[in-house]
Amino acid sequence: MHDNLLALLLLLTAAVAAVALAHRFRLPAILAYLAVGIALGPHGAAVLAESAQVAGFAEFGVVFLMFSIGLEFSLQRLKTMRSLVFGFGSAQMLLTVAGAMFVAWLGYGQGWRAGLAVGLAVAMSSTAIVAKLLSERFELHSRSGRQTMGVLLFQDLAVVPCLLLLPALANPAEDLLRAMSVALVQAAVVLAVLIWSGQHLMRRIYDIVAARRSEELFVLATLWVVIGLAYATGAAGLSLALGAFVGGMLISETMYRHQVEADIRPFRDILLGLFFITIGMMLDLGYVAGNLDGLALAVLLLVCGKGVAVLLVSFAARNSLDIALRTAAQLAQAGEFGLVLTGLAHQQGLIGDQVFQVTLSAMLVSMFLAPFLIERVARLSGQMARGDWAHKAMAVHEVAVAGFGLEQHVIICGYGRTGSRIGEFLSREDIPFLALDVDPHQVRSAAPIGGRVVFGSADRLEVMQAAGLARARAVVIAYPDIPSAERVLRLVRSLRPDVPVIVRAPDDSQMRQLKEAGATEVIPEVLEGSLMIAAETLAQIGIPVERAMTHVRAARAERYASLRDYYRKPG
User: Fold this and answer.
1) Measured between alpha carbons, how far is 50 from 274 in angstroms, rounded to an integer?
2) What is the pLDDT of residue 385?
């Protein structure tokens, strides 16, 4: 017992340190978990030992991940992206699988079954890594970002049939067709029953649970749904993850989707972290050290092979070289479900130990390289692009048309709740403004009289020039993303050192770096919220409102230099 506690303490210590370092260098946490498993596993420091109990708990990480994907699954979203999802996505998978089968047969002497298993595994890309990086770069709505997310969505959907196919492949050749047919019919029947009954029961169950107004009961009910549906599909001979995916998809049709997603995230992240640690434990460092040449070749084949496949599909979709390169870089790595499929193929005896170690090692290395590869390709392309040259020229043209004739206007970067409120205030004073946003939903928002909202990234030189920065009387950065705000500040200061720039920030911690980057004033949300909460608290306990507001004015006078004289006036 004491030894188990010591091992758990070491595991948690290593996980905390590794995840903290990953956040420090803005790397996905998945890389930290993989590193912990590699370092502490039986092939590393041997602090952790592989066991059926640990593997069982770790498998639930995949269950909860599939449940989360089910929550995000939307038929409407699928319909609008159908050409990208089923066209681009299926073409990418077919080319990658065909290439992997050819390499496995020609280079490694494997049969078609082993080649197909390896091909299905390496065709998957990392949703966890890529989606996080695209979100941080504000590239989710770029052309390359939309293509990448379409492919990732297809891969997520393709996991389920892949999980059914691999056990069927493990049967003798004469039983393959029968096994696949039985598996597909069985899956169709189970899914039909679960979806039909779930549509009638899921909303009613959550209505009853929500009426009790108990957070504990709500979380327990969600765990019951996840585990119950996973058990149902597992008992039917299907994967546990399939039942979890169906449960998430059914809940996504109810009004409780976002609450369920928030409640389930801690379980998903922790168990998924444990899953990735167990994957890292599989990597034999001794084998890697003794086969560096072969491993380097395998990584090169994986990354370049997937990259070439995506490039071919991108060119067929009439993308420019710039878009094709960035899409290829974003999809060139292996993925978390690829690791699952590789482990399943090894467990089913489809691939031997040597092929398993080569494939697993190459996949893990490619995932470690992914953030650096995406960053490097973005820099080589000379931009954090939002689309190809034609698309970019059209977007800049739209900004220029909207900004044509504007004089002494205000440029608002970001038109969310904060930006729209600023626009309302400017409209009341008859001050024209031009708002830039990269979210199509915000761009379609109706602007008040005197204002215009257009699609455009404020950290691009040509966009700000088209928005009339040379004629603007002020710039407001109304979103709380600090790295992006710094880029906009440096861009504005290179063109207009004199224009006032007001920046929104989450708190005071980034005030100094934003001021050094050129901000005229930084407005921290936490400060303003705390001032009003303090004033309301004083008023509610009997302190006169004027005295409470005097404290607020004093705090603001100390904080905001440009309004200091106003706040210091009595009354």
Assistant:
1) 12
2) 43
Q: Give CA angle at 113 (112, 116), nearest 5°.
A: 80
- Residue found under tokens 């050094």: 516
What whole-number distance in Å separates Cα of residue 403 and Cα of residue 454? Answer: 10
Task: Report pLDDT for 78.
Answer: 57
Count the Cβ atoms, other than its own, within 10 Å of residue 257: 16
Domains and CATH numbers, the chain: 2-42+51-380 (1.20.1530.20), 389-519 (3.40.50.720)
- The pLDDT, as a whole number, for residue 146 is 77
Q: Give pLDDT, residue 563.
A: 47
The residue to which tokens 């600023």 are assigned: 422
**Do 98 and 339 touch, CB atoms closer than 8 A?**
no
Burial (CB < 10 A; 0-12, 13-18, 19+), residue 302, is buried
- Quote the pLDDT of residue 381: 63
State the DSSP H helix or E strand holding residue 281, giving kind and residue range, or none if neither: helix 257-282
Measured CA to CA, the distance from residue 156 to residue 150 in angstroms comes to 10
Query: In terms of Cα–Cα distance, which of 440, 275, 290, 299 is closest to 359?
Result: 299
Helix (H, G, I), strand (E, B) or coil at 410: strand
Q: Rounded CA gap, 503 and 442, in Å? A: 19
Q: Which residue has the tokens 């990735």?
A: 276
Mode of pairing for the β-strands spanning 410-413 and 433-437: parallel
Q: Is 331 in contact with 314 (CB distance < 8 Å)?
A: no
Beta carbons within 10 angstroms of residue 76's beta carbon: 7
Q: Which of 514, 442, 528 is nearest to 485 (CA)?
A: 514
- Which residues are 492's β-sheet partners? none
**CA gap 372, 361 in Å, rounded:** 18
275, 332, 342, 356, 363 from 346: Cα distances, Å: 17, 23, 6, 6, 15
Sequence-ordered list of residues with C-beta below 8 angstroms from that of 237, at least 6 positions apart, any chain: 183, 186
H-helix segments, 27-111: 29-40, 52-72, 75-80, 82, 89-108
**For 148-186, b where at least 16 C-beta lie within 10 A, e where not — what string?**
bbbbbbbbbbbbbebbbbbbbbbeeeeeeeebbeebeee
Q: Measuring CA to CA, which residue among 332, 417, 426 is closest to residue 372?
A: 332
pLDDT of residue 388: 44
DSSP output for 327-384: HHHHHSS--HHHHHHHHHHHHTTSS-HHHHHHHHHHHHHHHHHHHHHHHHHHHHTTS-
Note the pLDDT tens digit of each residue in 398-412.
Answer: 787 777 778 889 999
Order across the sheet with 451-455: list the strands: 451-455, 433-437, 410-413, 474-477, 501-505, 521-524
Handedness of CA 98, 99, 105, 108 (dihedral sign): negative
pLDDT of 138 reads 58
Beta bridge partners of 501: 475
Low-confidence ranges of the chain (pLDDT < 50): 174, 383-391, 563-564, 566-567
